[in-house]
Specification:
The chain is an all-alpha fold and about 300 residues long. It is built from 17 helices and no strands. About 40% of the residues are buried.
Length: about 300
């Protein structure tokens, strides 16, 4: 069992296997598409068990750093993408603009924990950016593309709130009422459980999109290269934008900016954009996973 405690060192093996399984055996995993939301909630719950809720509350009570990083994630990155790609193909520009405008993904907190970053800061940014993105994404598209994304703000807000609040409340009840010593008992195996859940989520997500990924891969080499460049840029901008902070906080900021909520992006692309935009959002799942692995190995060289 001691090998389970070392799982987080080799999380990249799980991600590679998950991508392979999703692409190779899509029919096996596609029926479980509806479980993705529950997997995300389980990951959130385990993270809330592991992280002291007081740390999250502290970040919210002293919100300057959280607001600063959230503005970079939700506002600055999309604006940078818009102007850097202003002469690029409009479909590529709009797709990457949407990608950059997405809130921070839940799994970013896991990778921040694996990289010995400030997990509580990352988790706080996950909560704040997901709730704010309901308003920031339509605003940005209206300003830059004169496009009205007719979102049901209240429905989306309450749905995201459930994904956050239900795991939070369950975790708090377990820690404070039912099993007070659960953290001590499971401390060594938290990351193993979360990585297994993440692997399931990646496998199912890739399997659902496998047909699009395989059919459009040869046609999307240019967007794929641009996506890799964007993800690397998001990592570095997030990291150096708080250059005066500790390395743990810089890693949290970097992961918050690079590891976005792709599932929300794909849902929005299906609802409001054409097939070409959807294809690029689906294609982003590949560099999204690979660049997490790349960062795991180069982070030691960052100041």
């Amino acid at each position: 069992m001691r090998y389970l405690t070392k799982t987080d060192r080799f999380f990249w093996i799980f991600i590679i296997i998950s991508i392979f399984l999703g692409l190779s055996y899509p029919q096996t995993f596609m029926p479980y598409e509806g479980y993705i939301i529950y997997i995300i909630m389980c990951i959130m719950g385990l993270l809330f068990l592991k992280v002291d809720i007081i740390d999250v509350v502290t970040h919210i009570k002293k919100p300057l750093t959280v607001i600063y990083i959230s503005c970079i994630k939700l506002i600055l990155l999309p604006i940078i993408v818009y102007f850097v790609l202003i002469k690029a193909d409009p479909t590529i520009q709009m797709s990457l603009f949407l990608l950059a405008a997405l809130p921070t993904g839940v799994t970013s907190a896991l990778f921040t924990d694996i990289m010995n970053g400030r997990t509580s800061l990352n988790l706080t940014i996950v909560i704040i950016t997901n709730l704010l993105s309901i308003f920031s994404i339509p605003f940005l598209f209206f300003i830059f593309y004169n496009t009205d994304l007719n979102l049901n703000h209240m429905l989306l807000f309450t749905s995201l709130l459930k994904i956050i609040l239900i795991p939070l409340l369950i975790a708090k009840l377990i820690k404070r009422v039912f099993i007070p010593n659960i953290v001590q008992n499971l401390q060594s195996y938290f990351n193993f459980k979360i990585i297994i859940l993440l692997s399931c989520m990646v496998t199912i997500s890739i399997s659902v999109c496998s047909q699009t990924l395989i059919q459009t891969y040869s046609e999307q080499l240019t967007p794929l290269l641009i996506l890799f460049g964007c993800f690397l840029s998001f990592q570095l901008i997030g990291y150096f934008s708080i250059f005066w902070k500790s390395k743990g906080e810089k890693l949290a900021s970097s992961n918050s900016c690079m590891i976005m909520n792709n599932i929300l992006g794909i849902v929005l692309a299906i609802a409001f954009f054409d097939q070409a935009v959807l294809n690029i959002l689906v294609l982003s799942l590949i560099p999204w996973n690979i660049m997490i692995i790349v960062k795991h190995f180069y982070k030691r060289f960052l100041p």
